User: Fold these one by one.
Assistant:
Number 1:
Amino acid sequence: MNLTQQYLLDAYRAQCRGEPAPPAPGTEEWQLVREWRDRREFDAVVAGRPVRRRRRPARTWRRLLPSRAAHRDGSGRRSGAT
């Protein structure tokens, strides 16, 4: 049974019991990453070490984000815009 099947089974059981559905898989991943980073920074402060945050250069973010050119039609405006 994969993750999606387990989620659907849990959602079905919750609906039958009148309970709220569980969160969908992957919805809380960024929150987990932030909490992990905050905990790491807290541990560094308590241990007396400097807190270091690595910053990505802007060019790295541009590579990770989808291209803006893909969202534009030939007129230079975003597709779907009037």
Number 2:
Amino acid sequence: MEALPGRARALVAGVALSGLLCLLPLPGAPVPWWAVALLAALYGGCELLARSRLVGTPHPGGTFYPVLLAGAFLLPPSAAALAVLPGALLVPVAWRPYPARRLWRAGRLVLAVWAASRVHRAAGGREAVADCDVPLALGTAGAAVLVFCLVLTLLDGAVLALTSGVPLRRGERTAGPAVAWGRLFLRSLAPITVHGLAGLMMALLWRSPYGPVAALLVLLPMGVSWWAFAQYHRERAAHQATIRALVQAVDIKDGYTRGHSERVGQASMMIARELGMDDERVEVLRFAGILHDVGKLGVPTRLLTKDGPLTPEERRVIELHPEYGHEMVRGISFLGEAREAVLHHHERLDGTGYPYGLAGSQIPESARVVAVADAFDAMTSTRSYSRARPVPVALKELQRCAGSHFDPRMVAALVHVIGRAGWHPAVTADDARAVPAPAAPVTDRPGAHR
């Protein structure tokens, strides 16, 4: 646990201790040990299968919540929590510190299952499942699933905030903790509800005349759906690897702009979120920002790193890079509108941009987003031909050029989101290699924004 911050270590220890207390049996509550052992073996086996090379790993934990929730619907709280331990403690974890991650995984699941089981019993769910009263069982199971999801959300949000120093994931740094936790809860609720329905079906079949064997059949369709989900994540991982390879090639070619692509992707994502775009489109615009300069692989390195202004001939060569980039990515179907952004991110609203001189609404929205993000990072990073400018100066320059060069909506969105979240641009080259003279405005110098 030494790799974790002190407050995160305290949280992990507190959750693990609370989980141990939850394992204490209720007075007078008989424990069906054979059911505990069967559910524990099922959960552990499913988790091991989920992490095998045979099927791949869609995400790091909680793949088979139906088994845990079925235990919450069938067993006393302490017994249901006990069924969590073998799978949570024995299944390998992917990242260090291994002991802390195992304890955290076990503690959070024990607390969530124990709380769900307590709520289920208090609402009369045990009797509803025993009597196969489906309407009442649905209501009590729904309450238990809500509590289960709420406990996991609160614990995951807390540990992420303590270990990363931000409310939740990178895309939510601009939101307050309450808003970020609310988003995490809503994202988790739908899949956990589906798992809860499968767990309830297992519990009802378990208590039916057909017994536990029939209950196990519920895992078959869940396994098929999980396998399809795993293939989706495997394909997504392949997409990410493709993009990383292209970006690394650009970074190797032009050391001055190393990291530029990732930062433009981040700024594009921030603008898209500020404009209220849905998560899928935000992700596509992140790809667009990351890949916008991939066409520079076709441009001679001496032009990319040249000190001082470009000649007209050299500028014409530089201005081919959007078309080169579009040709490189046009066959990658998952990029969607990101391909248009690669081709048109140097167009200007007044029609003086390149490669086609599009104006106004003729320029795709994705390209207008990336154009602002690209120019902003270019101004706030050190290049072979200019020093980095302070963020406020760069934002003022963007506002000055809004309406002629940049879309005012995109500029306003970036200004607002940076005003809330801030921006910490990295200098991607040694200061000794930078030109000491102050940089000219991005729109006034031919070739300044390469």
